Amino acid sequence: MKPTNKLNIYRKTATTTASPGELVLMLYDGALRFMAAAELGFQEEHFARQNEQIHNNILRTQAIITELQATLNMEKGGEFSQNLYRLYDFMQDHLTQANREKSLEKIKVVAGFMQDIRDAWAQMLLQQSQAEAPASTGVSQGLGAQC
């Protein structure tokens, strides 16, 4: 089996077994990966390849941001969801400008915001799993005592 096939199988398994929170984290990671690839495009010497790499990776990042916006629950999230939606709009606009102007700085601005959100999301997931771990341990011990 080719290494790329193994990677694709791993990715498919990871996405089908991940929790909704982990899927959001994967989206953040993907957006950051595509922005890093766009940044690398600025080092490409061949003009057409440079533009293509920057353009395609910005579009991929924007597709992820669109997905993140679509998954926001505006009713339950209230003001927080509305603010996050506006921040995603800002990122979309900034990336559109970055693509049009081929601006590395604008990509870096969005990457900085995305990294901060991603880190906060990862921290929330970690705290959530730590809070659930003692509860699930207590449940299983309680069931063991009853059996």
Feature tags:
single chain; 147 residues; mainly alpha; Four Helix Bundle (Hemerythrin (Met), subunit A); 90% helix; globular; disordered C terminus
Describe what is shown at a glance.
The chain has 147 residues and is an all-alpha fold. The chain has five helices and no strands. It has helices spanning 3-17, 20-41, 47-70, 74-101, 104-146.
Overview of this structure, please?
The model is unreliable at 137-147 (pLDDT under 50). The radius of gyration is 19 Å and the shape is globular. It has helices spanning 3-17, 20-41, 47-70, 74-101, 104-146. It is an all-alpha fold and 147 residues long. Helix 2 (20-41) packs antiparallel against helix 3 and helix 4 runs antiparallel to helix 5. The chain contains five helices and no strands. Helix content is 90%, strand content 0%. It has a domain at 18-115: Four Helix Bundle (Hemerythrin (Met), subunit A) (Up-down Bundle), CATH 1.20.120.
